[in-house]
Design goal:
This protein is of the alpha+beta class. The chain is built from 7 helices and 7 strands; from the N terminus they run αααβαββαββααββ. A hairpin with a 2-residue loop joins strand 4 and strand 5.
Length: 206
């Protein structure tokens, strides 16, 4: 009976690992086409900015390929991808996109699932900022609270039933990855407060 139980646990672990790999493989950024168009538009008008943008795009693509193979990365590594990604999106949206951050520096060494924050930020821009004529604000807040990491990504916009169904892939992917990595020890909420939509992730830290 113990041998059978051990085999079953091994099979569950293997299945979880396979599912995690499949989920991570879906996380390659979908913004490359828009980023390339933005860079092309910059080449004549602002060569220096276009060079910077190419470097940012290269950083994001390289990191997404490398990090997607890992189970976890440091928060500092994850934020480096996010900031390069937002730099590219600033080219595209210009004054329509404002970015605010508040990150506890003590949390930089904490381990997080790769591309977790990037996926939620991308979701906020795609389903929030891009749909507003005047654009809006993306806020990234990370705090250490009682041996847990609280990650909050908020964007200007409204969350209604139609929008909730549209956010599908990014949100569902996040929920599944958190469940596989942390079980019931992690939580995820997508809520609407006033003119903001918030994604709140809480994960345990070692």
């Amino acid at each position: 009976a113990r041998k059978e139980e051990y085999k079953n646990l091994e099979m569950l672990a293997l299945n979880s690992e396979v599912e995690l790999k499949n989920l991570r493989s879906q996380l390659n950024p979908h913004f490359m086409f828009n980023a390339m168009n933005s860079i092309r538009a910059l080449i004549d008008d602002n060569p220096n900015e276009s060079k910077k943008a190419v470097t940012q795009l290269s950083n994001v693509l390289r990191a997404s390929l490398v990090h997607a193979k890992k189970e976890k990365v440091t928060l500092k590594e994850e934020l480096a991808i996010v900031y390069d990604y937002l730099g590219l999106e600033k080219i595209r949206y210009e004054e329509r996109l404002e970015v605010l951050t508040g990150v506890d520096v003590k949390a930089h060494s904490c381990m997080v699932p790769p591309l977790l924050i990037q996926t939620l930020v991308e979701n906020g821009i795609k389903h929030g900022i891009s749909k507003l004529m005047k654009g809006g604000v993306i806020k990234i807040q990370v705090k250490l609270i009682d041996k847990k990491l609280r990650i909050e990504i908020s964007n200007t916009g409204k969350l209604n039933k139609k929008l909730e169904s549209e956010t599908g892939v990014g949100v569902e992917n996040t929920k599944k990855r958190l469940r596989l990595l942390y079980g019931n020890l992690a939580s995820f909420k997508l809520i609407s407060e006033g003119d903001e939509v918030k994604s709140i992730v809480i994960i345990p830290i070692n």
